[in-house]
Design a protein that fits this description.
Blueprint lengths: L3 E14 L2 E14 L3 E5 L6 H8 L7 E6 L2 E2 L5 H11 E4 L11 H10 L5 H14 L15 H12 L6 E5 L7 H18 L3 E4 L3 H4 L4 E6 L2 E7 L1 H7 L33
Helix pairs in contact: 3-4, 3-5, 4-5, 5-6
Length: 269
Amino acid sequence: MNEAVLKLENLSKTYTLGKRNVQALSNVNLQVNKGEFVAIMGPSGSGKTTLLNILGCLDKPTAGLVLLDGVDVTSLPEKELYKIRGSKIGFVFQTFNLLPYLNARENVELPMESLKVPKDERKRRAGELLAMVGLSGREEHRPQRLSAGEQQRVAIARALANNPALILADEPTGNLDAKNKYEIVKLLANLNINQGTTIIMVTHDSNVASQAERLLFLNDGKITREKQGLHLVKKKLMCPYCGGKIQAEDTMCPSCRKKLKYQGEEDGD
């Protein structure tokens, strides 16, 4: 039986602007299971930011239920939500949000301080996480001495610091060039496969979204459709065309030589 990390039931959010009510989300139902990699796409104004804020316990719904790692967070007071954000959720932002006066290791250590993790343990774990994201030897560098791609790797390591139940990535490749964009998506995919990290990623980039396991399309505050992504094919380690064995890093099947693109892909999506 699949273990749900996140469950939304009839989730709605209404904002009041002057004398007008704006329905940002309308009866959203969603379950994300442990170890899934989910991408959410939608046009501007579709409700992506509102949904992400509610998932991250930064905002509350007008109606409906939010279960995060088995905890009903819908009506928790801010003091409890603060603890939830620190222990159960890791955030990755488009603009990295690293503190410029701290080096890479210190930035990764920061979330652990709120959980009163001992200093030696913080330093050890930060070093391990930076090595995991490919930044061994860069621990003492401050953000201004790191490339944009390296800064986002530090941000991903920081998001993993407290071993959260869920990673929320808001446009994680939005400020990166094509090469770094590919490397960051590959890093997230590998974390999902090798560490079992549960990831929800919001993006406007269809090529980035296609690398996830499930693609959800949000429009007018509702999930209107869903697709399977390339990452599901790679998790199965089997070519969807010939059934041959593939590796997670393959972009082309070594047997039939067909490009591995996500199932259900349509021109113009």
